[in-house]
Every structure is written in C-alpha cells, then in structure tokens.
Amino acid sequence: MAAADIVAGDGDAEDLAYEIYWHAAYSQLPELRPVAGRFLELYVGWGPAFDQTEEAIAAAKVAAQSFLRDHPA
Hints:
Layout (H helix, E strand, L loop, with lengths): L1 H7 L4 H13 L7 H12 L8 H18 L3
Helix pairs in contact: 1-2, 1-4, 2-3, 3-4
C-alpha cells in the first residue's frame, strides 16, 4: 500500500503521494475526497512549496500516517 510505503520510506514519496491522490480521487467513496485533496496538495506543492526534500517527505509521512490511522486496511 502506498501510504505504508511512504511511512516506511520505501519508494519515491512524491510518486506514492500521487498514487494515493489518484486512487482516492477516482474512488466511488465520497469519504475519500478529502484524502484526494490532501495528497494532491502534497504532490502539487512538492517543487515550489517545499524548499527541501526532507520537508516534503516529512509532510507526506504525516499525511500517510493520518490516512492509515483513519482508514485501517
């Protein structure tokens, strides 16, 4: 799962954030719309909004941890 991979530091966090956005945005579950928005915000802001990669990865980890807590598998 992409969120667990972000938390574990496995894979590219930017790509994984986009993957979460895409699946949440195109899900038939309305409760995932805020998830899509949050991960889209992270993905779009990766370049200009985050001066350092470490800051972007930390923000993605916080969002992924929150997602996993709120949506257990």
